[in-house]
Each structure stands twice: as structure tokens, then as C-alpha cells.
What does this fold into?
Amino acid sequence: MRRAGLLLALSGRAWRSVRMASSGMARRDPLANKVALVTASTDGIGFAIARRLAQDGAHVVVSSRKQQNVDRAVATLQGEGLSVTGTVCHVGKAEDRERLVVTILDINVKATALMTKAVVPEMEKRGGGSVVIVASIGAYFPVPGLGPYNVSKTALLGLTKNLARELDQRNIRVNCLAPGLIKTSFSQVLWKDKEREESIKEIMQIKRIGKPDECAGIVSFLCSEDASYITGETVVVGGGTPSRL
Amino acid sequence: MRRAGLLLALSGRAWRSVRMASSGMARRDPLANKVALVTASTDGIGFAIARRLAQDGAHVVVSSRKQQNVDRAVATLQGEGLSVTGTVCHVGKAEDRERLVVTILDINVKATALMTKAVVPEMEKRGGGSVVIVASIGAYFPVPGLGPYNVSKTALLGLTKNLARELDQRNIRVNCLAPGLIKTSFSQVLWKDKEREESIKEIMQIKRIGKPDECAGIVSFLCSEDASYITGETVVVGGGTPSRL
Amino acid sequence: MRRAGLLLALSGRAWRSVRMASSGMARRDPLANKVALVTASTDGIGFAIARRLAQDGAHVVVSSRKQQNVDRAVATLQGEGLSVTGTVCHVGKAEDRERLVVTILDINVKATALMTKAVVPEMEKRGGGSVVIVASIGAYFPVPGLGPYNVSKTALLGLTKNLARELDQRNIRVNCLAPGLIKTSFSQVLWKDKEREESIKEIMQIKRIGKPDECAGIVSFLCSEDASYITGETVVVGGGTPSRL
Amino acid sequence: MRRAGLLLALSGRAWRSVRMASSGMARRDPLANKVALVTASTDGIGFAIARRLAQDGAHVVVSSRKQQNVDRAVATLQGEGLSVTGTVCHVGKAEDRERLVVTILDINVKATALMTKAVVPEMEKRGGGSVVIVASIGAYFPVPGLGPYNVSKTALLGLTKNLARELDQRNIRVNCLAPGLIKTSFSQVLWKDKEREESIKEIMQIKRIGKPDECAGIVSFLCSEDASYITGETVVVGGGTPSRL
It folds into this structure.
């Protein structure tokens, strides 16, 4: 239940030399020497992911469409002693966007595909990389009233598999995170009033609503060497809400 | 492995009065008094479906983008004594299409969604209806070299679920057919030469390649009263190729 | 939500000669010249399936563990002019069962596997056949309080795929039906009181509870020549309840 | 492709006090103060998991059916400075096993269910815990010649969901690992000769066969606080082999 197909790209400077997952060393700073680009990361789940990747040793590039949001997020994370810089990121040029009917499908699916392709050459230069696409539990089940959003998220499950296949030969893994109901400003309509929250929890068959932080660890894991044989997969972080076998 | 999100819309003139599935009667002409609009139906799977629906009692409207293809298909089916008429169907007006970058995602997903919504009012007037969307086994697994096609088909799985949910209250069911490898002109690159065919069959773990006719029965079934409690589902017609649990 | 892994086995006397699905003829009596063995078929979904297969032209063998139930079902169906006989069917010999701790897993999974294997030689003699295994929506989602039942139904999804693969070379197709919430005596605890019914419908996200008849058409379809390219698949009959993509 | 439903149970001594995942601290020794019981862990994937959990701070109890295998594994891991002890673990008493027809379904499914239930009281005393069940890619697709094995693994996907649901209120999470083709003695028939390996890689659509170590990180992750909102899920470690959406 978040705005856009958030895309995370991580590439290792010295991919092969970091290949020491079983030594214990790599786990201390599993993302050392890596650069992470996290889109839509000034708030909510994206922000939690950006923080976590930086804590795990990556240099993180925070990105969003608005300069002031980027500045605020960078300042916060730098204040925590993390290695973070920021960039404003547009989906295409402004004039193009105006002509285009920018639908949810375009933003969530096409932009994710285009951005992945944009970072591939950089990853190849560094010997490999890892992409984590953010879908939603809505990819599996129709959250009422969010039709186009749900469908775009379903498409991301397929995009993950197809990109994984295509980029396999270049040492780039592509995986996907499907958060369930997470407490963010984006999803607040679902939990703001107590009664609504209880009803949603019953329908989603969960004990409690998740926190953005609870989505961050799996992203760091999927980007690390520990996930070296995981590609094309989607992990649901949904607190037990029905997903798929 | 077919061109576009083929959409089939069936609406019953006298929905409730046909509700006699267990009497045996309805099964003789399971689609009597129904009108079926079959897009992309002048060739291959679409044509096989159109023929079958007409054989099962529906009046079928054959549709495609080219007048001469429509004329040929209508003539053939009328020559078999079937109740068929034709119409040329554009995805939007020509001038719009030129401005728009008509990608596979637009054609397969947006056009399918728009066309379904276009037929809903007519179905409501008749008391209900049935939509069958045609996806592909590529929706589940990345057929190499067909990335955007595969992703658009994955999106259709989600579209099926979401439309089913939305249209539930209006007595409209929405289901999906996912053909595996079917012998059509569209898929001939995969089976034209014998050696290629054998290798594809091994990879797809099938004994033989399917025929367009073998996709038609399930569509007729899903449109009939016999499927009254089936909605939001996708049926794979793939000869045993790996699909999903 | 039904007792046991109901197994349906259909074998065609003259398989190849019936291969005329597109002629319209086969659809009049799609199961003519076939013999259907339906286990657990004296009540509920099994009974609805047995009746439907007989209406569609098959000779049906009704089967259950209790003689009087079999007699009653046979009498009812013969009274409707259908070609039906009965047999009492035990899972193993009585003395074996007493020694064995007959768990749900044993009945639902092992018995289904064993019975399928028992009918294979007969099907082979006739040139082929079709098996439809009955699982449940519980195979996909944990219906609370029914753990072992749910797990056994999940196993049936895998059994379907594995038997389909194994029996492919012998012209035997194996598919599966997963009913959602159907109004039977087995499931009455879920719908007997009105308030409970409304709550269940909300959780299952369905407009109404299904009827046994609504599970019968798909079984007849899967057994017919129309499903000649469908094997290893599960069809959910759940009225739109969340299932899987 | 491994022998039995390997079960991993982890319980935190001071569950709530360890709740500091975002502080960076917890990640240094993510499993500190935890006790891990790893069954079937003297070889292959189980052994790799046991080692990794110990490296990540847990006290590990290695377990298997044969005393000498347990002794050897414990000695090896203690020699690496890890906190490890061993225990011989039988599925039931020997005399029981002789009477019982111990099928694969019994070992893989029933034993996993029983063992989980056996460790629940201990986990509850400690305030919670985490169970990771090991299934296989065979759970999703029928590996030829391994029918009962595959079906038992499919059942484990359902068991994971059902146990997750049941144990939710006791602060116990239950997840599942589905390894693809991993280089172990168990799977050597598939890769021992070079030609066979190449053919298997093509069918499984993978670039290379995985290593036991590559299955270990995800188990440690799923047991850690970082996975606090992940329950009922299966993660495939298959190098991009077709799995499910």
C-alpha cells in the first residue's frame, strides 16, 4: 500500500572480493563497498529501507521527486552518522510527463523497468548488482477501491521474474518485496480510526499492522551476498495475511 | 503466446430464466440467447473460441482491426450455419493512437480494462454477463525474449481478480484463460522447425503442442451457467507445462 | 470443506472415436461411452457430481463406505432415469485400518494416490482416462481449526501435478477441483446461524455461499474431450474468495 | 532435494529485550541469546544452516539419527569455536517405527508437525520463537521420479501456513525455505556427470547449481528479529529456477 514501484539498486564495487559470506566478516557490514540507490525514499517504507542499507554499510543515494523532501531525509540520516547523499529524480522530463497520461501502470511498471535498465550498465562495470522491486500484498489480492494500483503491483511480480532472467548473465539479481499492511502515511486511511483498524485486521487475518522498519531487513538481506542464489523471487512481509503457497 | 489481450464478453438476454443448469436443458445449448463479443478473433485461438461459442448457441460478434480479416472470418463461420456478425474494432481512435506510445502494456492491459468497462453497462441491462480475458503461460514464467509481453500477461492475472471483485455486485463474472504453447501463426517461431519444437517441448515438459480448438471449450464453459460460482480465476490450458499450484 | 479426498475416475470405452469435440456432437452427450467412478458420492458435492456426470452421458458408479447410503443414492439417481450403479468402497481392508492410525493425511492423500493407481490399468485398457481430485480452498489458505485437513488438501495440489506428469504417457489426465464454501452438511457449522454466515462471507470476501451443483459442471468439463489439453491444473470454485494468481 | 523435512526451531531467551533491530546492535549478533535446534544437520544444507546460526550467535543443537554423524558434526563446529552441542533424535521410539509403515509423507509432514508442537511449550516459556521448515522446489513442480517426495514437500507449504496461523498468538513465527538444486550428496545423481548437469541446468533454467551455504543465510534471517513481520511465508532459494509468482 505505497505510492509507487519503489526500486532499489545496489552494486558492489568489488563484487568478487566480497565473496566471503561464510567467513562471518561479510555479515558485520554486509553491504560495505556498495552503493544503493533508493527511489521514493524520503518517507515510510522507502525511508526505513534507506536507513537500514546505510546502517549495513552501503553508501545510500536517497531519491524522490521533491527537493525539500530529499534534503530533509538526507539531513536526518547524515545526523545519524550514516553515509547518505540525495538526488531529485523525475520519471522522464517534465514536458514529456505532461503530454503523457501518467497512469499508475506507467509509473509503477514502466518506470521501474526503465530505471532498472538505466542502472544496469553501471552495475555491469562494477561486476554485478542487486535490484529489489517493491510490490504489495495487493499484487496477490484485490484491495477494494485500488484496482489499477493492485494490477500494477501484480505486473511487478512478473517484471521481477523477467528481469531476473534477462540480467542473470550479467551477475545481477532481481527480487521483490511485497509488504502487507504497514503503518505509513500512505496507508493511514486503513488504520486511522480504531474501529476501521480492527475490521481491516480481521479481514487481513493479522494480529497487528506492520512497521516500515520491518520491511527494511529483508531488503538489506536480498542485496547482500547471503542472497547470492536467490533471484526472481518475491518475499511477502505481511504478518501472516493470506498470500500464496 | 498470442498477440493481444483478447477479451471475450458474453451477456445473457434473460439471465435468470436460463438458470436451469441442473435440468440438462441448458447444456444442450449452453449459450442460447447470449451475445458474445470476441476481440482478435479472425485467426488462431480467438477464431477457435468464436466458432465454439457460436456452436454452443451464442450470437457471436467477430472483431479485429482489419476489415478484410473480419469479413473472411464472418463468411467462414456463416458458411458453417453459425449466427455470426462482424465489426472492426480500434483501440481508441487512430489519431489518439498515434500520439500515444502504444506499448504492449497499453494494448494488453489498459485496452482490456477499458473494453471490459465499455461492455459493463450493456451487460447490466441484460441482468449480468461473463468476461474471459486471455493471458498466457508467459504470465507465470518468463518466456525468454518476450519480457514486456510476459509482464503484460502477468498484469492480466491481477486485472482478472480486481475486475471480478468490482463487478461482483452487478452479476458479472470475470475469469481468465492462460494458454500454454498452442500451434498458431503467432507462435510458429517456436515450432516451425522440428528440432526447435522438440527442444521447446522438453523445456516446457509437455508431450505435444496444443491446438487452438483445445482453448475454446473452457471459454464456452466459463461463459455458461455451469460456471456460476467461478469468478476471478485463471485456468491454464498448457498440456501439463509447469504452471502454479 | 468436505470429508475426504474425493476421487473421480473416468475412462472412455472408445477414447479415440469420441475425438470429435468440435463437431458439436460430442457436446450433446460429452461423456457418452464413459464409465465414471465417484467416491464419497452419496451426499453433498460428490452426489451433485455423480448426478451431473450421469446426465452428461456417463455410466456412473456411486461409492461410499456405508451400504445404506450407497443404496439410497443409487435409487434416487435411477429414479431420475440415469445410468447408475453402486459399490461399497473401503480404504484398505477393515483389519488393516484398525491397526493403522488412519489420519486425515492418510485418507485424503494416500488413499487418493492408491485409488488412482488402482484405476490406471483399467483406464489404460480403454485407451486413456481422466482423474479429478477434490481438494478445497483450504489448500491455499488455513481455515482456522482445520489444520490437518488444510494440509492434506495442499498435498493434493502437489499430488495432482505429480500424477499428471506420471500418467501423461498413458493418455490419462489428472486435474483438481478446489471448492470454496459450499452449502453441504459437512460445512454447516459455518453457515447454520445467520450471523455466522454473514461474518464468514465477509472474511471469505464472497457475495454468497455456493451450491453443490455449482461444483459439478467443472468436473464433467474436465472429464470431457474439451479439456484434452488441460492436465495438472486446479480450478477453484469459490465465488471470488481469495485464491491464488 | 534433501532427505527429510528438516526443522529448525529457535527460541529467544529474552525476546522482548532483544527488540532493537534498528539500532544496528542486533545485527552484529542477530541470534545472540537464542537456542537453535536443527534437525538432519550433520551434512549438506542442514549442516550449513547449523554452522551459520552458530556464527550468528545462537547456541546450536545439532541433531540426526546416527550418533557418529552427530559427534563428527559437533566436533567440527566446536573446532571452529562455535557454541554447539549434539543430540540423537528419533522420530518416535524404534519399536513404534517398526510397526508403522514409515512413509515419506509420515517423515516429512507428520514428523515436522509433531516436532514443532513438541518445541512450542519451550518457546512459550521463553516468550516466543521461530520455526523454519525446509521444503524443496519439488513442492512447486514435479521432479520426475520423486512423486511422494514432491507431494510431501507441497504439504509442507500448507503446514507452514497453518502452523503460522495457529502459533501467531504465542509469538511464534513459522516460515519455510524451498531450496532449488543444491550441490549435496543427496542430489548428486542430478549433477555427478557433467552432461547430466548441463541438461538439468537447462531444464531448471539456471546458470549454476547452488551451494549449501547459500541456503543458510535466509534461515538465520528468518530466525532473527529482522523478520518479525514475516510469518507463513516460503522463500525459494533456486537461482532463478521457475517457482511461482
